[in-house]
Queue: 4 jobs
Job 1
Amino acid sequence: MVQAAGVRLLVVATVVGIHAQSADVEIVADRLKFPEGPLLVNGMIHWVEYAGNKLMQLKGGKKFALHSEEGCGHNGLQDIPDKKQLVLMCTDSSEVLFLDYSGKVLERYKHDDQGRPFTDGINDAVVAADGGVYVTGSGPWKDNPPIEGTVYYRAPGADAFTEVASRLGFPNGLVVAKGGKELVVSEMNTNRLLKFKIHGDGSLGNAYVFKRFSQLFSEDCAEHSEWLGADGMKTDSKGNIYAAHNMGGRVVKLSPKGELLKTYDVPTKALSNVEIDETNGYLYV
């Protein structure tokens, strides 16, 4: 059960405890170059550094680079435990990489199943229980970005990604919810979360608004607008959703129905992603 006693900052990981009424903050790694995508793999925290073009691991208190590739723009990171593989998003080159746990590239995707290049800004991913993989293509990272974000899906055993949603406002983090029946996607530039019904073949139904952060935190809207919104997300064992609220300086905990359960403040406004350590009661940001 995640009750938060502490937050571990990744400066990459800030660790916020999930058991206390107020989060204690511990810095577990610093001097990082735009950390993103904190992820626990076999009990060890991993992350990527967008500006450093690296996938990193913290082992025995020391930082190790598992993968480095100029021009990638490392971003989202997910685990496929059954295959002992990682899914890595390259934002700048708009690619999806599949790696083994040592960091070796096993597969690389640049196009969808129609031969079309991925939308600019491949951003984040989530792995469904059956091994299917959803990824977001946010569109260009610039002021007033066009509404051309996309969600792609690779079915288990498939050799290509298929476009399953389009014309989204900078889609970013995403989680599988409601026992695998729904996909929740953060639409960052509208400061809201969308939900889609997942069909049996992995395709998606129509989009519905799941939660408007602009209503939860209306006081933020006057100060930050364009990049104020939910970024990366994770779910706990009870189906609760934890969303990193970029430019809001908090992690937002929502029930499976979208009810606000708790917020965890962290000492930075720019907050890109979150990882949950339920065993030890921490959030990594």
Job 2
Amino acid sequence: TQPFPPPPPPPPLKIFNTASTSLEPFCPKVAGEASMYTCGPTVYAPAHIGNFRAMLTYDILKRVLLHVYGMAVTHVLNLTDVDDKIINKCRETGRTRAEITDKYTEVFMSDLASLNILPADHYPKATDYIGEIVEMIQGLESKGLAYKNDDGWWYSVSSDPSYGKRVASVPLDPRSPPASDADFALWKAEKPGVDVPTALWDTPLGRGRPGWHIECSAIAKALLPPQIDIHAGGEDLKFPHHENEAAQCAGVGGEGWCGCWVHNGFVNVGTEKMSKSLNNFKVLSTACPTSLSKRAFRYLVVSSHYRSSLTYTEV
């Protein structure tokens, strides 16, 4: 018998890059390797099925890179374990920040496994990178891009002429700090009576905690090459989160930090995005209580176009 001929090589890979709004050839910085940073959940409650659409998008993209193109992929997925929602839950329940976030991190990891999602190489927690966050903010200050006021440290949008043009094209009319509404928090100063002790750090920036956007920039800089190949997340993260990340990284390391920005569409309930803030969300264990229904949800997501919206209905 004759052996089967080898399969033909795959066609050149093209990925839709949000930053350019076009399909582009995927050209990793190092041939045969891909560095990939993806935004993970805030671990104060179970993730909902809209969150898991993003996780499944990351999974399919990574499987294509690994198994179709034979690349070595380094994948980082962060876990936000300090923010306003977590602090509110600490006050409401009397539990520590770690007690809350450890519990829901475990739930998240279990849900990932139940959806047959390939594990990331790193699941960094924001609070494990306080030193790197402080160092990045100090670097931004040295470039004239960060300033301090009574509320903490802020990114100066008016000092960055490329702000609003790196990931999502956003018309801005920034004014001089500290009056600018566009400036965003890098480090939040302690608010007595509001903050909880387990979510505060004494640093050269003062006593406080990191803002949301800075954690991803600092973690990516710590765990991945200076220039990464892919950054992915839900389409709601284009602005301001990913634009802010790109600004911070450009401020300390120069332009061109990320080669390709990938964003998936929403899971909607009716005409509204599924979200915890709208209280219209379904967690995986409720929406898909059996292993078969989880497989069905995975099939629904991976067989749809990742940039289109999906609508959740109950029958």
Job 3
Amino acid sequence: MRALRLLLALASTHAWKRHTSAAAIHRRKRRFVRGGAWGFGKNKDSAAEADNATTTSEGGMSQSQIDEALSVVPVFCLADPEGRPVLMTAPEDKDDATKKPLQAFFTDVNVAQAHAARIKELSGDDKLDLKLAVVELGRVLSAGEPEDRKVSLMADPRELHVARQLVLKGAGFRDTNSTGTSDKVVDFSSEASVKKECKAHCPDGVDLDQGVPLFTLKDLNATVQGDDVIQPWFLSFADLVRAYVNSTGSSDEEEAASGLERLLMEGGVVVGTLDSVLAAARGGHTRRAFMIPP
């Protein structure tokens, strides 16, 4: 059970909660994957297809394919009772007309709710009633920057920490409290230490200080609408763990967990960002991408 405990600890650094409206989100996910199936190392015609996450596809993804992939990903912003977006201004900038207020879109509903609660607490107004508005990620990315505000896509900090841990594990780092021969040592429980070390080891084009992390496995694929094989990218590492366990078809949780732990140590887990994955997909440097919301 040691392997299973290690993986669950990594995938569950904090409590993973579901929003009450998650059923609607899952209905949209099923619409996209209906008729398809997860596979691990399946549907390969040659050894070159083993590196699914880095396999080049001819021509890259079209804009319509990218729009479809992003349409199943909801993001959340704060709004007042009348539905107007909440714009945030730093206290030091409130009298500076040159500083634009910020409109934040959150990839995780619980993080958005936490920000709403924090704003209410800081305002001192117990009657302040902030709502959550749901928008398709594609609409946010295609809208561009408004003249009157800055727009920012806010990643789940828990997923950022897990992504950095995975990057360092792939680079050969071990935890300060573990035994091993590697001279690369870091305190995996320290967010500051992990963030500092990760800067020098992220793959080219992957900026976890600015981007939204995505996770996949090199050999995990999905068939969608017949024979179209795509590369699924997860916004939640815990969801990736579940997808892997389901794809193995194994009834032995310990065996499945050991297999995933081996992939972690051998670099089979791929960490990217939304920007890096979309850039690679447009350029034909990766399989057609499919986003799995949390």
Job 4
Amino acid sequence: MTKPMHKREAPRAVGVGSDKERADETAVDLIDKLGGYENMISQGAEGRVFAVTFLTKPAIVKQRFRKTYRHPTLDAKITRARLVGETRALIRARRLGVPTPSLLYVDARQNAIYMERVAGRTLKELIREGMSDEDMEEVGTQVGKHVAAMHDGGLIHGDLTTSNILVVRDEGDEPKNAAAKPRVVLIDFGLASNSIVPEDKGVDLYVLERAITVTHAAGRLFEAVMREYKKASGLWSASFNKFAEVRMRGRKRSMIG
């Protein structure tokens, strides 16, 4: 019995031509070899995420799949550009001091990025369950600091939602019976871009505000984000002004419907 076609794609090289097509036919499907297709975590419009063990380390694989409605050559170029863009954004964020998953390997043939599997929970989950005031203050402070570092370094996340912020508790680093301090990790730089334009920073902050303030109580968390952003950023004034403008436009659209 054949396995479902929607779960896997034949490895391919960017470009077309008989030599490359023959190479694709004999290429090793690394995701399959690592058992990734049997451990799919999620699937979205742009790709899917698998859990694997890579070089003895727990890892995730983010693979972008083909868009059949596009010409194959155009699709290959766009997919490759986005793969490279996400990889560079991930590396740049780490250089700016932003905690992200470690990059382990990039497979251009399968359009896949292998990253460290972070043992944390999304901020979205924690907000829905309810967070203590102390945790909201600590997590908000860290998020504000890291977003400010990205923005001052000219990097825009592009999808700064609570689903793309992981909160980790390193139990082993704390004394027995002591509550572990939460640690924030930013993930999914698939829509990241390079920009120093205050408008783009304002949009990032607005997206984050909308994601955080799904409950009234979580408003305190966003206040901590903005307070720390102001402390950590040397360019906070222009960013905040644009954030206010973007927020106003968003409210007007909501009123009009």
